[in-house]
Specification:
Number of helices: 13
CATH superfamily of the largest domain: ATPase, nucleotide binding domain
Radius of gyration: 25 Å
Helix content: 55-70%
Number of domains: 3
CATH topology of the largest domain: Nucleotidyltransferase, domain 5
Structural class: alpha/beta
CATH class of the largest domain: Alpha Beta
CATH architecture of the largest domain: 2-Layer Sandwich
Shape: globular
Distance between the termini: 70 Å
Strand content: 5-15%
Length: about 350
């Protein structure tokens, strides 16, 4: 262990081994080590309390919670914010040094540590997302198999299932016995996926009823059980964001900006951050668009004005950004969504 007290410990996490760089209060590197994750936990347990910095990657939240129990101050950062501090050639040791240096910057944006419950909820969403994508691939393959045999089926999943069921019952499917067995096998797989996705949906609905934050989010139009639980898992109490626009920007729902010489130029949305959350919010905004236009509320009036001068898809994305701001307000103030006074 270094004789000079370590003020900041930067850790470059790897699957098996981790590189460490310790800095003193003046910013000089006084320690360089490489050890396994098990050895890392033992090493930090014997280290006096200091700032432990890591990139927000796989396993960082578990280690962060462990280091906090040992009395350290944990700082997680996005890898893209650490990259500018890497000097010359990229190595694990220099990555660790860059992490330690980036953590000392007063303007550095930090990632909030996730609880085990939040990580469990994220895993549930990832598993459901994988099954939904698999079901989409399966239905596309089913349509492709039948279109090669002159059977044209609708694109929508519910209409496709209804039409196929009618054709199977009435024996209208004019295909070879081998192709018919293939179709039956694909339909059985489809039914299995529906059952598994339905079980995940039921679990998410139960979690929404039990969790106060998710239940409050579900009161917002366009934020159902999927969006509510996904936002709770990724954002928590939204304490990492100073204002609602910061959450919308983090989700990639605000315009990209390219300004120079005092001339501001706004382009399309940045599409940064969590793609899954952004997609779900846009889907929710599209579903809630009609609801807002029919309600005499400030948001409804804003949406109606937007529809008179912009394409509906643009309005949907703008509404998704506004929903993100509303989500921040609900999480930070801890109360249900209020529609606001009626618009005269």
């Amino acid at each position: 262990m270094a004789k000079t007290p370590i003020a900041t410990l930067g850790i470059d996490l790897g699957k098996n081994s981790c590189s460490l760089a310790g800095m003193d209060a003046s910013g000089s590197v006084v320690l360089r080590k490489r050890m396994t994750r098990e050895g890392l936990i033992k090493f930090t347990g014997e280290l006096p309390a200091c700032v432990v910095a890591m990139e927000a990657c796989c396993g960082a939240h578990y280690l962060g919670r462990t280091f906090e129990t040992q009395g350290h101050t944990v700082r997680l950062m996005s890898p893209e914010y650490v990259a500018p501090y890497v000097k010359a050639q990229k190595t694990d040791d220099r990555d660790a040094e860059a992490i330690a240096e980036a953590a000392t910057r007063p303007t550095m944006r930090l990632v909030t540590l996730k609880t085990e419950a939040q990580l469990d909820l994220q895993v549930l969403h990832r598993a459901r997302e994988r099954l939904v994508a698999g079901r989409t691939r399966l239905t596309n393959q089913l349509r492709a198999v039948l279109i090669e045999r002159g059977v044209i089926l609708p694109k929508r999943r519910s209409c496709l299932a209804k039409r196929l069921d009618e054709m199977m019952k009435d024996k209208e499917l004019a295909v070879s016995p081998r192709a018919l067995r293939l179709v039956q096998d694909l339909l059985e797989e489809w039914a299995s996926l529906d059952r598994r996705i339905g079980a995940y949906n039921d679990e998410l609905a139960a979690l929404t009823r039990e969790d106060d934050m998710a239940r409050r989010l579900a009161t917002i139009p366009g934020i159902g059980t999927i969006n509510a639980t996904a936002l709770v898992a990724a954002v928590g109490d939204a304490s990492a964001f100073a204002k609602g626009r910061d959450l919308a920007a983090w989700l990639g729902l605000t315009p990209r900006q390219h300004s120079t010489g005092g001339k501001t130029r706004l382009m399309g949305i940045s599409k940064r951050g969590n793609k899954y959350l952004r997609t779900q919010l846009i889907h929710g905004a599209r579903a809630a668009l009609a609801h807002f236009t029919k309600k005499p509320t400030p948001v409804g009036a804003w949406v109606s004005r937007m529809l008179t001068r912009a394409h509906p898809n643009v309005v949907v994305v703008a509404l998704a950004a506004k929903l993100a701001r509303i989500v921040w307000a609900v999480l930070r103030h801890g109360r249900d969504y209020q529609h606001g006074p009626a618009v005269a």
